[in-house]
Adenosylhomocysteinase
Amino acid sequence: MKAMIREPALAPEGLLKIEWVQKHMPILNEIRRDFSERRPFAGMRVGICLHLEAKTAYLALVLKAGGAEVAICGSNPLSTQDDVCAGLAEQGVAVYAHHGCTAEEYNTFLNKVLDTRPELVIDDGGDLVHLLHTDRRELLPDIIGGAEETTTGILRLKAMEAEGTLAFPMVAVNNGACKHLFDNRYGTGQSTWDGIMRTTNLTVCGKTVVVAGYGWCGKGVAMRAKGLGARVIVTEVDPIAANEALMDGFQVMPMIEAAKLGDFFVTVTGCTNVIRAEHFTVMKDGAILANAGHFDVEINKNDLMAMAQSHRPARRNIEEFVLKDGRRLYLLAEGRLVNIAAADGHPAEIMDLSFALQALSLEYLINNAGQLPPKVLPVTREIDLKVASLRLKALGVEIDELTPEQQRYLASWRHD
């Protein structure tokens, strides 16, 4: 089995992690049983670039059970877990990843996945798709389609579609109801504060938290901060989102004003330079900076480094920057995704929903191969409803059904 991993001896620990999440992912378990019988991916090659931890590993095994040859790399150097890589490789998946890889190694791992000539891809942030459209264009004729996990990745795909350069259909899994309503909101909310609290070992209650961005991820981060007893300020560029934040009970103001007040800062925008030199200049001594957006560009690390007279590791996953006036600012997890780089990511039950959408969307692409346009496509309503129904069934929850009379009523504009 081909693989590029760091510590094969950690396989037993990784397999235990995968076994744990499997017990808490009933939707994927049901899909795996179905895939094992029908083998819809028999003889097909799937390339994956996702945060390589236990839940992702189980998704890879579900696709393998459906007949796929799976190759996978990590989408973030700090989120990759070496024990999980070893366990997954032992299960017959081609794994190209290790924790803390360099930018050069990361590019090598992406190319190793593409060397397997995948016909289907799953991406997280768009790096795999970007490489297919630049340095590895010779592989494009093989690609049936793919699926994207994140808001950031979909923004990149939309830009490619607008330019007419997107060469194959990509399902916007991030926009599926069973993804953004639960993964982005509840998953990001819980896992971000898990990462911050286990890294800092500080209280959140009584502190002022500044959340940059009030999309579904920002809503979750703000909601959980409020639940932990914090005063919450939201910064936004979208007037509709700003009004939502106000009506949800949060203060709204520009970052330059919020910067003076915050104890914790969490960026969740998908944009660049959200917190920069002008904001660092007015922050409190001891302010803590964390990012929960996909790339490490939301907090300007170059500005922070240029303003600091010294910096050092203050604790695992915390870097202390001492400014010229003596104020100390603390950056968590190198400004990368704090919920995965400094914790274990979203809970298994949350990722069960998202990864079920991924698995079923790949099957949808196969079933419609050659019939779909090279555009960003929505998750079908049928797939969303199937995933939601499978979760209710797993929980033992029943709901009502429309009667024939109710169906007729809703389908007609003529009523007696």
Remarks:
- The chain has two domains: 8-175+346-395, 187-336.
- Residues 187-336 form a domain with the Rossmann fold fold (CATH 3.40.50.720).
